[in-house]
Design goal:
Largest sheet of chain B: none
Radius of gyration of chain B: 23 Å
Number of helices of chain B: 8
Number of strands of chain A: 27
Shape of chain B: flat
Order of helices and strands of chain B: HEEHHHHHHH
Helix content of chain B: 55-70%
Low-confidence stretches of chain A: none
Mean pLDDT of chain B: 86
Shape of chain A: elongated
Low-confidence stretches of chain B: 43-65, 67-78
Structural class of chain A: alpha+beta
Oligomer: heterodimer
Helix content of chain A: 25-40%
C-alpha cells in the first residue's frame, strides 16, 4: 500500500510539467515557438524530455512501476479471494465482547416464542441462521458445547464478498485499459486529409496529407473505400451582437463508396458526430477556404490552376496559403499569400479579416522568384515556403507592392513572368454572389483504433468495480446463544468490519432487533 | 422575453442570493461565537464515544420480555442548534433558492444548460455545493461547516460575477453535444463533494491540533465532532466525489473521442483532471496505509481540492489547450 501510495503521488507530480510546457503530441507549434523564443534553454529541457513528458523515460518508468506493483498486489489478492469465495465463514471467536461492535442480552429459562414453543439455544441460533441467510450472509453453525459443559451454539456469518470482487475488477480493468491502449496504438493509425468541396478521398496511403501509423501497422489494414465531399457549410452567428461571427455549425455532406462499389451513400459529418466507415472513424476537425488560383505564362498558357488550401490563422479566418510554380514560367515562382474572407483595413494600413464569412473576400500576394529548393527531390511541406534562395519581387520589402485581388480579378506577375488570377467560382449566372465565389475545404481526421471498444468496456468495468469496491460493506456478524447454568440463555451479537464500513453498528443492532422479534421477544431498554 | 432581459434577471437573482448568503455567513459566525460560550460554560463537553456493553435481564413472567442494555451506539452530542444556527440555515436555504433560480434563468436565457463557460460553471458549481451542504444534513448534522460553505460560495460567486461574467453567446460546434449536459454536470457534482470534504478536512486538522493541546482559543471546536469522526465523515464525502470524478474523466474521454477524434490526448485540462484523480486515488489508499491516516490523509484531501481549484481557475485562464471554453 505504501508503495502504491508513493507511486500514485509521484505520478501526479510527474504529470504536472506536461501541462506547463507545450507537448509535441498535443501542441507541436507551441514547441517550435518555444525553441524559437528560448534557444538556450529549450535544448536542455528537451534533453529531459519535457516536451514529450507522457512518453518520456521517467514518466513511463513511474507508471510502469505502478502497474507492476499493481499486478504484484492483484494476483495474490485474487488467489486469496478465490479461496475465500469457496470457504465457509470462520470459527466464532471465543470472546465476542472483545470485538468493536458487541451487544448481549439474557433471558430466563423456559421462555416460549410466539408459537408457544420453548426457546432453546438451538432454536435461537437456527432463527439467527435463517435471518442472516435471508439478509444475504453466508452462514456457518458452530457448536462449542464440549468445552464449556453447557450448550454454546453460534452462527458465524459473512457478507460483502462483492466488495473485494469489485476492488479486484477495478484494478484489473485499469491494467486492461493500459494494455488495450498500447495494443490500439500499435495496430491503429491516424491520418489527415483536407478535401476541397468536390474532391474525393480514397483510403490508400498516398491519399493522406499526413499519416501516423502504429508500430505494427501494414498497408493491408487499409480497408478500401472512397469519400466525396459534396458540400461544406459553415454557419456563423448574425443576430447576437455579443457573438457576431462566432461559429454555430459546421456540416460536411459526403457520399461514401464502400470497397469498389459504385453505389454511393449520402452521409453527413459534423463536429460531434463522426462518420463510421470500413472500421474507421472519420472526424470533421477543421475547415477553411480554398481559393482557386490560376497562373498563366505570358502567352496565356495555364501553368497552374487549382484550389489552394489556405490555413486559418485566427478566428475570423485570416488564412495563409502557399503557391509554388516550379515549372512553366521563366523562373521558379513562390507565392505567400493571405486570404481575408471579409477584408478590412486597420488604422495602421494593415489588412485583417473581421468576419469569418465570405462578405468581402480578398487575397494579398507576396511573390518571390528564384530557387524553390524542391528540385533535389527532398520532401517539403506544401504549407511552407523556403525563401532563403529566393528574391522578393512584390511585397512589403520591395518597391513593387503586394498584389491585391478580389474574386475574378487578374494581375501581372512582376518581371513579365506571366499573370495570376483569383478565380470567381460562383456559377456563371450568379457571379455577383460573393458568398459562392470561394470554395471551402473540410479537414478530415481518419482514425483506426482497433481496441476502442475494449477501452470503453474496461472503462465501464472500472466504474462498476469502483462502485462495488467502495460502497458494498464487507462484514462479519456472529450470533451466539450460551445456555446458562440456571437454564437461561444468553444471546450475544457482534460484528467486525473488513474495510470501510460506517454502517456496521446499526447493521448489528438491526440484526439483534430482528432476531429477538423473530423469537417473539420484546426488548425493553 | 428577450435573452438579455432574462440574463439580467438571472444576475439580479444571483446578487440577491449573494446578499442572503452574506447574512447567513454572519449568522454562522455568530453561532460559532455562541458555541465558544457554550463550551466554556459546561466543561467538559467533549463527546467521547462510550461503549456500553452491559447485560440486560428478563423481567416478569407471562409476557416474554427481553431486557437489553442501552443500544451500543455512539452518543451524538445532543445539541440542538442555537438560534443563530437555525436562522443561518434558513437563510442558506433562502439564498440557495434564489441562487438556483438565477442559475435556471440563465439557462432559459441561453436556451441550454447553464454551464458552458466559466461564469456559468461557477454559478452552477456553487449552487451544487450549497445544495450538497443542505441535503447532506439529512444524513449527518454538518451545519458547523456553514460558515466555510457560505464563505467559500460567496468568494466563488464574487469571482464569477465580477471576473468571469460574459453575455449569453451561442455554443461553438464542439460543445453542441449531450455530453455537455452529462460530463460537465458530473464534474460540478464531484467538485461540490470535494469542496464539502475539504471543509471537513480543515476542521479535522484544527481538531487534531486542539486534541493535542494546541489552539486553546478555539473553544467552539469542543462542540464539533472529534477528529476521528471528522476524518470518517470527510472520507465518506470525498469517496462520493471521487466516483463522480472518475465518471467525469470517462465521460470526458468519450466526448473527446466524438469531438476531437481521440479519447485521450494529454490536453492540459485532461492532464489536470488526471492529476486530481491520482491525488484522490492516493487519498483513498492513504486510508489503508499505516501511518497515513489522520492528518496526512487530510492534507492529501486538501491538496486534491487545491488542484481542483487550480484546474478551474489557472488552467482555464492561463494554460493553452483544447478546453478553451472559459468565454473570456
Amino acid at each position: 500500500m505504501r508503495t502504491a501510495l508513493f507511486l500514485l503521488l509521484l505520478l501526479a507530480l510527474a504529470a504536472v510539467p506536461g501541462s506547463l510546457f507545450s507537448q509535441r503530441s498535443s501542441d507541436p507549434n507551441g514547441v517550435t515557438q518555444y525553441f524559437a523564443e528560448h534557444p538556450d534553454t529549450a535544448p536542455i529541457l528537451d534533453k529531459f524530455q519535457l516536451f514529450d513528458v507522457y512518453t518520456s523515460v521517467w514518466f513511463s518508468a513511474i507508471y510502469l512501476l505502478l502497474f507492476i506493483s499493481l499486478i504484484g498486489c492483484v494476483i495474490p489478492r485474487a488467489i486469496h479471494h478465490a479461496r475465500a469465495l469457496r470457504s465457509r465463514p470462520p470459527r466464532t471467536p471465543v470472546h465476542l465482547e472483545r470485538l468493536g461492535t458487541f451487544s448481549a442480552s439474557e433471558m430466563k429459562a423456559g421462555q416460549t416464542d410466539a408459537a408457544g414453543v420453548t426457546i432453546t439455544a438451538a432454536s435461537a441460533i437456527e432463527a439467527a441462521r435463517s435471518l442472516l441467510r435471508r439478509s444475504g450472509y453466508r452462514v456457518q453453525l458452530f457448536d462449542t458445547a464440549a468445552k464449556t459443559g453447557t450448550a454454546d451454539l453460534s452462527v458465524s456469518a459473512e457478507r460483502g464478498y462483492l466488495r473485494e470482487t469489485g476492488n479486484l475488477l477495478f484494478h484489473t480493468a485499469l491494467i486492461c485499459i493500459l494494455i488495450s491502449v498500447g495494443v490500439g496504438s500499435g495496430f491503429g493509425y491516424t491520418g489527415q486529409r483536407a478535401l476541397v468541396v468536390g474532391q474525393a478521398f480514397a483510403n490508400v496511403r498516398v491519399s493522406f496529407d499526413s499519416f501516423n501509423p502504429g508500430r505494427f501497422f501494414t498497408d493491408a489494414q487499409l480497408v478500401p473505400y472512397r469519400i466525396v465531399l459534396n458540400s461544406f457549410s459553415a454557419t456563423y452567428e448574425e443576430q447576437n451582437t455579443n457573438a457576431l461571427g462566432e461559429p454555430i455549425d459546421y456540416t460536411a455532406k459526403v457520399t461514401t463508396y464502400e470497397g469498389d462499389s459504385t453505389e454511393g451513400t449520402k452521409q453527413t459529418i459534423k463536429v460531434n458526430s463522426p462518420l463510421e466507415i470500413g472500421g474507421n472513424q472519420v472526424y470533421l476537425l477543421g475547415n477553411g477556404y480554398a481559393p482557386h488560383i490560376t497562373v498563366r505564362d505570358p502567352s496565356g498558357t495555364v501553368v497552374f490552376s487549382e484550389p489552394v488550401i489556405y490555413l486559418a490563422q485566427d478566428a475570423n479566418l485570416t488564412s495563409l496559403g502557399i503557391v509554388k510554380i516550379p515549372d512553366g514560367l521563366a523562373k521558379q515562382v513562390g507565392i505567400r499569400s493571405f486570404f481575408y474572407p471579409t477584408v478590412a483595413e486597420a488604422s495602421d494600413k494593415t489588412l485583417a479579416s473581421v468576419n469569418p464569412d465570405l462578405l468581402n473576400p480578398e487575397i494579398s500576394f507576396v511573390m518571390y522568384t528564384g530557387n524553390l529548393g524542391i528540385d533535389s527531390g527532398a520532401p517539403k511541406s506544401v504549407y511552407s515556403l523556403d525563401v532563403s534562395k529566393m528574391t522578393e519581387v512584390a511585397g512589403p520589402d520591395v518597391s513593387t507592392a503586394a498584389i491585391h485581388l478580389k474574386p475574378g480579378q487578374t494581375a501581372q506577375i512582376p518581371g513579365g513572368l506571366g499573370s495570376i488570377t483569383f478565380d470567381n467560382m460562383a456559377p456563371a449566372n450568379d457571379k455577383q454572389n460573393l458568398e459562392k465565389s470561394v470554395q471551402r475545404f473540410a479537414s478530415l481526421d481518419i482514425h483506426r483504433d482497433p481496441t476502442l471498444g475494449w477501452v470503453l468496456f474496461f472503462a465501464i468495468c472500472v466504474v462498476l468495480g469502483l462502485l462495488t469496491g467502495l460502497f458494498i460493506p464487507r462484514r462479519r456478524v456472529w450470533v451466539k446463544a450460551v445456555e446458562q447454568k440456571d437454564g437461561g440463555i444468553r444471546l450475544e451479537y457482534a460484528g467486525l468490519a473488513r474495510g470501510e464500513d460506517p454502517g456496521l453498528e446499526s447493521a448489528v443492532a438491526d440484526i439483534a432487533t430482528r432476531h429477538s422479534q423473530q423469537l417473539g421477544l420484546r426488548l425493553t431498554p | 422575453m428577450t435573452t438579455a432581459a432574462l440574463a439580467s434577471y438571472s444576475l439580479v437573482a444571483v446578487y440577491s442570493a449573494m446578499a442572503v448568503y452574506l447574512f447567513a455567513f454572519i449568522a454562522y459566525t455568530l453561532d460559532l461565537a455562541r458555541r465558544s460560550a457554550e463550551a466554556t460554560s459546561n466543561v467538559p463537553v467533549v463527546a467521547e464515544a462510550v461503549r456500553t456493553a452491559g447485560v440486560g435481564t428478563l423481567s416478569s413472567a407471562g409476557t416474554t420480555v427481553l431486557e437489553r442494555p442501552a443500544a451500543v451506539r455512539e452518543p451524538t452530542p445532543s445539541r440542538r442548534g442555537s438560534v443563530f444556527e437555525r436562522v443561518a440555515f434558513a437563510l442558506t436555504i433562502l439564498g440557495w433558492v434564489l441562487h438556483v433560480g438565477g442559475d435556471v434563468l440563465r439557462g432559459v436565457a441561453a436556451h441550454r444548460v447553464p454551464w458552458a463557460n466559466m461564469f456559468e460553471f461557477s454559478l452552477t458549481a456553487s449552487a451544487i455545493i450549497v445544495g450538497v451542504f443542505i441535503f447532506v444534513q439529512i444524513w449527518q448534522p454538518l451545519k458547523f461547516l456553514g460558515a466555510y460553505i457560505t464563505g467559500f460560495v460567496l468568494i466563488v460567486l464574487g469571482f464569477g460575477t465580477v471576473g468571469f461574467y460574459v453575455d449569453v453567446v451561442p455554443l461553438p460546434p464542439a460543445l453542441q453535444s449531450y455530453w455537455l449536459v452529462i460530463h460537465v454536470f458530473v464534474a460540478t457534482l464531484g467538485t461540490a463533494f470535494f469542496a464539502v470534504g475539504a471543509g471537513l478536512s480543515v476542521v479535522q486538522l484544527i481538531q487534531t491540533r486542539r486534541e493535542h493541546g494546541g489552539l486553546p482559543s478555539l473553544k467552539f471546536m469542543q462542540t464539533f465532532p472529534d477528529s476521528v469522526k471528522l476524518e470518517n465523515l470527510a472520507y465518506r464525502v470525498v469517496v462520493v466525489g471521487f466516483v463522480f470524478w472518475t465518471f467525469t474523466l470517462m465521460a470526458g474521454a468519450i466526448w473527446a473521442e466524438h469531438a476531437w477524434g481521440r479519447y485521450w490526448g494529454w490536453d492540459t485540462k485532461e492532464v489536470w483532471t488526471f492529476i486530481i484523480w491520482t491525488i484522490f486515488a492516493g487519498y483513498i489508499h492513504a486510508r489503508a496505509t499505516r501511518g497515513w491516516r489522520g492528518s496526512r490523509s487530510a492534507w492529501l484531501a486538501l491538496i486534491g481540492f487545491g488542484a481542483v481549484m487550480f484546474n478551474f481557475t489557472v488552467v482555464n485562464l492561463y494554460f493553452h489547450g483544447l478546453h478553451a471554453y472559459s468565454g473570456l
